[in-house]
DNA sequence: ATTAAGAAAGGACAATTGTCCCAATATGTC
DNA sequence: GACATATTGGGACAATTGTCCTTTCTTAAT
């Protein structure tokens, strides 16, 4: 649920210090609650989280938000739109104070074509997203809220401190009411 | 729900005829109902569907199968495991007569490193999987079975002829009983 | 201190979905 | 035809989840 990729982060930070790539990668800071990228907007840059936590979510015609993932250090967004050549399909919002690295699409594509290791880490990053999504959604579909919540708690013990209840519910695709019920049932079963 | 990628298929077929890549890509035929790749097994090859339809699914501890996607011509599987360096996380089974191209992981990685266009199409393919999954699961979580079914029918008019009811249910993550109810409600509303 | 605003928790009922089971309809075999 | 075997569809009830609304607590502002 909270994705990280320190290997990729390391590479980006090395590139940033490399004079050959002067100015390619810029750093930016945001307060909590800021929308970095809107759904259905034109995407011109790729971002990587340096520090903090962002949520990646889609808003449906029903008005419901569905959270795809929480992106922590080393996670990238805005890259899929380069390949699919469409507007953004999800929104990105900070859920804590966040610092990001930014690269233009043009710069990003050049890195992909010229920098072998960068290219490989990008392939790995995308493959990791595919795999993680597959496993998560399969599990979520096949289990009830209580079991899904238990799984999240096993991944992150202090989940209630990291993520607001509402976001937890939107990640699991259920209402807050139902999430509360699941929490109570877990308490009782201790 | 039925994924295709003719651009990638074209490239593979061209490579197959190219004497430089003699023997790299082999062709194989399967009857309907054959398991090509088992869950939690070691993966040594990458496959691309040439003709026919396969389903990609995970089996959960509850005994439930959850279908990720149906792969048609040009879709690849067995590639994610190269990057994640783990056993297969889903199973692949033919749902019609199917012909496949097969490449060893070693051959695949070499193509990735040496063939620019191949590399780019691989990035595109992975990005497409990420995007498609995101949109599908968000929609499915945010709507009831009836609406989800309507969406599938709008994608593929003749869905009931292509996919068995049980597979449809497993794709939507619901029981056959519930799928039948949704079908009836749709009939009534005509 | 008082008030307003907003978050958090849960009661009550409705809607949806799952589970279990049975009847109807093929399908193929002898 | 008679029989076994699937396959399909749906009834009845249980479990789960959603919707709506109220209450309780904070928190913040004046």
TrEMBL record, chains A, B:
Residues 30-129 form the Cyclic nucleotide-binding domain. It holds the Pfam family cNMP_binding. GO terms for molecular function: DNA-binding transcription factor activity. SMART domains: cNMP. One of its GO terms (cellular component) is cytosol. This is Cyclic nucleotide-binding domain-containing protein.
């Amino acid at each position: 649920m909270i994705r990280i990729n320190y290997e990729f982060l390391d590479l980006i930070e090395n590139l940033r210090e490399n004079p050959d790539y002067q100015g390619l990668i810029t750093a930016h800071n945001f307060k909590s609650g800021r929308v970095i990228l809107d759904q259905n907007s034109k995407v011109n840059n790729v971002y990587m989280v340096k520090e903090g936590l962002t949520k990646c979510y889609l808003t449906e015609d029903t008005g419901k938000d569905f959270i795809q993932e929480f992106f922590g250090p080393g996670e990238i967004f805005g890259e899929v739109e380069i390949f699919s050549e469409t507007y953004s399909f999800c929104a990105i919002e900070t859920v804590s104070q966040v610092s990001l690295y930014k690269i233009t699409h043009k710069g990003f594509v050049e890195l992909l074509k010229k920098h072998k290791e960068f290219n490989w880490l990008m392939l790995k990053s995308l493959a990791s997203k595919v795999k993680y999504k597959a496993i998560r959604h399969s599990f979520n579909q096949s289990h009830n809220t209580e079991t899904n919540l238990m799984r999240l708690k096993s991944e992150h013990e202090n989940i209630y401190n990291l993520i607001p209840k509402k976001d937890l519910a939107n990640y699991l695709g259920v209402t807050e009411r139902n999430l509360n019920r699941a929490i109570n049932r877990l308490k009782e079963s201790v």
